[in-house]
Amino acid sequence: MSGWIEVCKTSGLGDGEMKMAKVGGKQILLARVGDRYFAADNRCPHMGGNLSAGKLEGTIVTCPLHHSQFDLADGHVVRWTDWAGLMATAARTLRPPRSIRMHEVRIEGDTILIEGW
Question: Which domains does the chain have, with CATH numbers?
Fold first, then answer.
């Protein structure tokens, strides 16, 4: 799949909202913060949580499973889990922190497009 793919209308995503869209059999997280739109892989790289079911504060998305956090501005890890002590060390050792994969977004009229892969 390549080129730009329509995923949603801008009216379908309010400010501060997230939703999941299926694109080519893959789950994509769509989010809107102000007049900026973001697209990322929807599955948390820690344990596969559904990020679109998590919480969005500014550009930070929190996974509903283990509260890993990612910045949608570039996908980097803000917090790998909210565990402490030995559990946090084990989580980082067994599954080292990984950013979420971001997808380029373009708006044409009232249509949200993401770049194909």
Answer: 4-115 (2.102.10.10)
Residue 4 Cα distances to 46, 104, 111, angstroms: 28, 9, 11
HSE (side-chain half, CA atoms, 13 Å) at 26: 18
Q: Which tokens hold the place of 16?
A: 């501060």
- Mean pLDDT per block of 10 residues along the chain (117 residues) reads 88 96 94 97 93 98 95 95 77 82 96 89
Contact 113, 9 (CB under 8 A): no
Strand-by-strand arrangement of the 4-9 sheet: 4-9, 111-115, 105-108
What does the block give as tokens for 20? 């999941």
> Using CA atoms, how far apart are residues 18 and 56, in angstroms rounded to an integer?
7
